[in-house]
Amino acid sequence: MREALGDIHGNKPVEIWFQDEARVGQQGTHAYIWAPIGSRPRMVRDNRHDSAYIFGAICPERGVGAAMITPAANTEMMNLRLAEISTQVAPDAIAVLNCDGAGWHQTGGALAVSDNIVLLHLPV
Fold it and tell me: How many domains, in total, are found in the chain?
């Protein structure tokens, strides 16, 4: 981990943060109804799809966290999450945020990482 931080942390305290996200919602499936044996009644099936994403992060050592529910999982929502996490990091500390390989966790493009957060990607 010291290699990932390099000289960024200086003499600042380092917090280890863990984060992940989950999709929850509705996805229409087979519909079953009670009917007499041998009959085939018509049934309206719900084919709507609707999801939300729960983003969460925690620093176990300090017992603090940051969470939000968003309509999508993308770079824009990751930027909102990083901004929220940065408000929960102790003053004058730096957070090492463990991330998996999701596309919106990558540092290229429009990902805005605060000065008090360093992303540490899990090995592939």
Answer: 1
Instruction: Give dist(CA 112, CA 76) in Å, integer.
Output: 9
Query: Has residue 66 been placed in a domain?
Result: yes
CA dist 63 and 66 (Å) reads: 11
Span 42-62, average pLDDT: 84
In a domain, 74, yes or no: yes
From CA 74, how far away is CA 45, in angstroms rounded?
30
Query: Whole-angstrom Cα distance, residue 124 to residue 110?
Result: 22
Give me the domain span that covers residue 8.
2-33+44-121
pLDDT at 122 over 70: yes
Q: 74-103: per-residue pLDDT in tens?
A: 888 889 999 999 999 999 999 999 988 777
